[in-house]
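Lecture notes, unit on protein representations.

Consider one protein chain, 141 amino acids long.
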Amino acid sequence: MAPIGFDYGWNTHVGENFFANMDLIVLDVCEVRIGENCMFGPRVSLLTATHPIASGPRAELLESGQPITIGSNVWLGGHVVVNPGVTIGDHTVIGSGSVVTRDIPSNVVAAGNPCRVIREITDEEIRHWERLAEEYRAAAR
């Protein structure tokens, strides 16, 4: 959903069945890879750009970047910030307002600032949501 902003645009690669709510920001100084079936809440920021810690070189506007990789079937809640160099695994949920400063594995719920794994997603939980989805689809027929 508009608006959406890119630093370059050509360094961002998105899989099929992707949805981003309004105000997505992608600073793609280097590669951003987003898997299939991903959902982003409003105001998600993917920030590959980084600058020198030393103020002298930073004042010269030096910039570099580290790639971001987001697996398939990932849901990023509203206002999530993903920092340079981060990989988020498949089937993972990142809670709203999180600042992701390091890699997050597959099949977990993670949240916070800095973002940390809260728990694994269980098979029982998956079956529960699949049953609800089937009931919803049956009622819609």
